[in-house]
Each structure stands twice: as structure tokens, then as C-alpha cells.
């Protein structure tokens, strides 16, 4: 079935029949403290169960799935306070914006949906910082599985070397978040985490691997969903270290700067590619591994 693509002028909506499975908000109206940037929210499995969370009270800058970078040299494109060595979290008034410029491709056909976009990263004080090109594709694998493939390339347009990092590279243990970040529903708290090494929980934080899956349960209905995330072998630090939590909330992020800084000289470009398969039910470890292969194949088609 061909997916439907609609553009409201602020968001793209992608539907399968009567079911909206994803919305991509490319002109957000969030406060500057939340680092306004495009995000995928809401997301639903093909049974109609929501598998994302928008602007939770504990971290209002979390929004479904979004490219989010907390430590880009002196700037913050994550939202909230910035973690600095010896100081902790400090509100530096440095929450930047990833601003949509234009779509260079918007296609919906029998192969799915494909979108390409250009963006500018603007600091809170109004300076152009990075330029970005990104693309994403949505494809349906089966009656109970679909895949979001995502690619970004961002270029340092400043005259300075910008050191990409995380709170962990600034000294906070096991806080290496930054990148393609997902926040799950409240009901997914204490969900199961699957990797090639088996099933686990929060001890999976920082584990390396080509893929990681999170199984959560839904309130009100007797149902579960599994999200299977993949890294790309050409991404920085691949196989990536995963930032993942099941408590106190559900979150997953393939984190290329988890505990390793990456200096970007003027003109340097960093490319990140990831995919996430949204699956009805509990796939288990073996099922997640097979779906990860399918998702990786879809990501390869994105280019």
C-alpha cells in the first residue's frame, strides 16, 4: 500500500490508510530553552499504539525522536542546561536552533516516503553555526512492522575547531547522550532491552553494538511494542556505544560522542545514519536481531 504524505506548512504527516504512523514537525514553536529543532512525534506502531512521548515534565526538551546534540563546543543543540566539567549543569543561554530551510525532496510512492531537507544551526545569540543536509525514509515491511531510516550530514561553518562531546566527556559518568535520541512512553518504564548479547535492563548502558532494541508495554490495552534501532558501520566510533535507560524512563540513543570527543575543524562534516523499526508486539532477542538486518537494509537504500 502506498503511504500518504501531507504537508501542513509546519509538519509532515505520514499515514498508512486511515492510521497516521508518524508526524515530522519541521517548524516547531518551542521555547528557546528547549533548543527548537525538528522532531518525529507522535509515532505509532501499525496496531495504532503510540510509541513516543512529547515534552515530558522531567525533560521538556525531549520530543519523540529528534537529532539532539548537548555539547557542540560551546553550544547546546539539545535544550536545557549544559553540563560542564567541575560545574555540573549550568544555564549558559546557549540553546541553539536547528532551523528548517527547505525540502529538496518530498516523495510518496509504492516504495514508501522519502524526504530530503536542508537546515541551518543557529546559536541562541543569532550566529550561523553549522549547515545540515538530512534525509529520511519511511517504509512498511509487513502488516506489523515499519521502518524510519534517517541520515544527516552537518558541517562546521565557523572559523574555529568545534569539539563534539557529551556530558560524559565533560565528566558525568554514563551520561554520554547526544545524537538520534528517542524518548518512550511512560508505560515503557522498566521495559526490556535487547542486544546481541541478550536481554537486560539499565546495565546495557554504554554497551557497543550494531543494533539495540527496546520492548515496552502499553497502558489500557493488552499490548506491547518493540523498537529496533540500528547504527551504520561508517558512523563515527562504530560500532556505537548505546545510551539507553529503562528507568526512570525509557530512552535510547546511538551516541557517537558517548565518551570520545570528536574535533571538527572548520569545514569538517560529520555524517550519521540510523534506522529504527517500529514493531507490533514483543519480538524477543532473536526476532529483534532479524528485524535489525531488515532495518539496516532499508537504511542502506537511503544512501
Structure description:
With 303 residues, the protein is mostly beta strands. It has one helix at residues 284-302, and strands at residues 4-7, 11-16, 19-25, 39-43, 65-72, 75-77, 82-84, 88-90, 97-109, 112-122, 128-142, 145-156, 162-165, 179-183, 192-195, 198-200, 211-217, 224-231, 241-245, 251-255, 262-264, 269-280. The chain starts with a strand and ends with a helix.
Give the SSE layout.
Blueprint: E1 4-7, E2 11-16, E3 19-25, E4 39-43, E5 65-72, E6 75-77, E7 82-84, E8 88-90, E9 97-109, E10 112-122, E11 128-142, E12 145-156, E13 162-165, E14 179-183, E15 192-195, E16 198-200, E17 211-217, E18 224-231, E19 241-245, E20 251-255, E21 262-264, E22 269-280, H1 284-302
Antiparallel strand pairs: 1-2, 2-3, 3-4, 5-6, 5-13, 5-14, 7-8, 9-10, 10-11, 11-12, 12-22, 13-21, 14-20, 15-16, 15-17, 17-18, 18-22, 19-20
List keywords for this structure.
nine-stranded antiparallel beta sheet; globular; 303 residues
Walk across the major sheet and give the strand order. 9-10-11-12-22-18-17-15-16
How many helices? The count is 1
- Low-pLDDT regions: none
What is the strand content? Answer: over 45%
- Rg, alpha carbons: 18 Å
Helix-strand makeup class: mainly beta
The string of secondary-structure elements, in order, is EEEEEEEEEEEEEEEEEEEEEEH
Helix content: under 10%
The N- and C-terminal alpha carbons lie at a distance of 23 Å
Number of E strands? 22
Q: Give the quaternary arrangement of the chains.
A: single chain
**Overall pLDDT score:** 98
Largest sheet: 9 strands, antiparallel
| Overall geometry | globular
Amino acid at each position: 500500500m502506498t503511504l500518504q504524505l501531507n504537508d501542513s506548512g509546519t509538519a509532515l504527516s505520514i499515514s498508512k490508510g486511515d492510521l497516521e504512523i508518524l508526524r515530522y514537525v519541521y517548524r516547531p514553536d518551542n521555547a528557546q530553552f528547549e533548543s527548537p529543532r525538528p522532531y518525529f512525534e507522535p509515532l505509532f506502531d501499525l496496531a495504532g499504539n503510540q510509541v513516543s512521548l512529547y515534552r515530558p515534565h522531567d525533560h521538556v526538551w525531549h520530543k519523540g525522536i529528534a537529532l539532539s546534540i548537548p555539547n557542540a563546543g560551546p553550544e547546546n543543540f539539545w535544550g536545557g542546561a549544559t553540563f560542564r566539567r567541575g560545574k555540573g549543569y549550568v544555564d549558559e543561554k546557549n540553546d541553539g536552533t536547528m532551523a528548517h530551510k527547505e525540502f529538496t525532496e518530498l516523495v510518496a510512492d509504492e516504495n514508501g516516503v522519502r524526504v530530503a531537507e536542508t537546515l541551518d544551526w543557529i546559536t541562541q545569540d543569532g550566529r550561523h553555526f553549522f549547515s545540515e543536509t538530512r534525509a529520511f525514509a519511511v517504509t512498511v515491511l509487513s502488516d506489523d512492522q515499519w521502518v524510519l531510516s534517517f541520515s544527516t550530514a552537518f558541517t562546521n561553518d565557523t572559523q574555529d575547531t568545534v569539539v563534539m562531546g557529551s556530558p560524559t566527556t565533560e565528566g558525568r559518568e554514563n551520561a554520554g547522550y547526544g545524537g538520534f535520541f528517542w524518548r518512550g512512553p511512560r508505560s515503557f518504564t522498566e521495559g526490556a532491552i535487547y542486544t546481541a548479547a541478550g536481554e537486560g535492563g539499565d546495565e546495557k548502558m554504554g554497551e557497543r553494538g550494531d543494533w539495540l532494541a527496546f520492548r515496552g508495554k502499553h497502558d489500557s490495552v493488552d499490548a506491547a511494542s518493540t523498537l529496533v534501532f540500528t547504527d551504520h558501520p561508517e558512523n563515527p566510533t562504530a560500532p556505537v556505544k548505546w545510551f539507553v535507560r529503562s528507568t526512570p524512563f525509557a530512552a535510547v540513543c546511538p551516541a557517537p560522542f558517548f565518551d570520545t570527543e570528536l574535533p571538527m575543524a572548520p569545514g569538517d562534516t560529520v555524517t550519521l545514519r540510523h534506522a529504527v523499526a517500529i514493531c507490533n508486539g514483543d519480538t524477543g532477542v532473536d526476532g529483534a536481531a532479524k528485524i535489525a538486518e531488515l532495518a539496516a537494509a532499508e537504511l542502506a537504500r537511503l544512501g
